[in-house]
Specification:
Blueprint lengths: L2 E4 L9 E7 L15 E4 L6 E6 L4 E4 L8 E4 L1 E4 L6 E4 L5 E7 L3 H6 L3 H4 L3 E3 L6 H13 L3 H16 L8 H8 L8 H8 L3 H12 L3 H17 L6 H7 L5 H10 L1
Antiparallel strand pairs: 1-2, 2-9, 3-8, 4-7, 4-9, 5-6, 5-8, 7-10
Helix pairs in contact: 3-4, 5-6
Length: 256
């Protein structure tokens, strides 16, 4: 199975964090075990666009007790969220997608992140259905993950029209922080020169989450990155990522 993940071309650098594409993975279902075909998808704090090329449409579940799920079609926008969701992986298909930067949804899809947060939206509810169908047909005609990724990237460039997201300068400073947990929400608000209510409203519209929720997910992402290093202990990871102690990290991990 070919799986690709890379930064976008320069024309999309202000709008897209990364792009990905993969061929259909092998079946992983265990006969008689329905929970074996569900995947926990962790939150990133960002809005995602995902398209399945062929195969069954995307099927999501509310929780482990949900046996029916929700069928969302082959092209979906996943809004920013604070906890995992479950998706069906019993019928693998090739796919392609993008993780967007704050403010990009308004440019690429015509709606702010705040309107998409916390749920999944079929792409044809945001864009003309004929355009979405045409994109899926073109992707289906391509052979291989790399070709599909290049086509999807060109489609995004066409929608971008050279426009970067129009973020308030205060939000730009927050996004550029290399260690988000080092800048608490109170400091962000103070540095912005805005009222607390105004800053929170701008943040929610551009990102889809409250600042505190977004910061928690930035810490969580850093935890996952450091946890991949075998020499790292959990107590050290907790300290390096701005948690009060290892118990604080454990509680946050369970919540997400």
């Amino acid at each position: 199975m070919v799986s690709l993940r890379r930064p976008p071309v320069p024309a999309l650098r202000g709008l897209v964090e990364c792009l990905w594409s993969q061929d259909a993975p092998p079946l992983s279902a265990s006969p008689g075990n329905p929970t074996a075909v569900r995947e926990h998808v962790l939150p990133t704090g960002a809005t995602h666009i995902a398209l399945r090329i062929g195969g069954a449409p995307l099927l999501l579940f509310d929780d482990a007790a949900d046996v029916r799920g929700h069928c969302l079609g082959h092209a979906v926008v996943g809004g920013a969220r604070t906890s995992y969701h479950l998706r069906d992986v019993s019928q693998p298909a090739a796919s392609v997608g993008a993780m967007l930067k704050p403010g990009a949804a308004r440019v690429l899809l015509g709606v702010p992140e705040g309107a998409l947060a916390g749920h999944h939206t079929p792409l044809d509810m945001l864009l003309p259905a004929a355009d979405v169908d045409a994109l899926l047909e073109r992707l289906h005609a391509r052979d291989g993950a790399a070709d599909r990724l290049a086509l999807f990237e060109r489609w995004l460039v066409g929608r971008a029209c050279g426009r970067p997201p129009a973020l308030h300068p205060a939000l730009v400073r927050s996004m550029r922080s290399q260690a988000p947990h080092d800048m608490p929400v109170a400091e962000q608000v103070s540095a912005s020169g805005l009222s607390h209510r105004h800053y929170i409203a701008l943040f929610r519209e551009a990102i889809g989450l409250a600042p505190r929720e977004w910061l928690a997910l930035q810490r969580f992402s850093q935890v996952l990155m450091l946890a991949a290093e075998p020499a790292r202990g959990w107590a050290d990871i907790a300290a390096d990522c701005g948690f009060a102690d290892q118990a604080h990290l454990a509680n946050s991990f369970r919540a997400i």
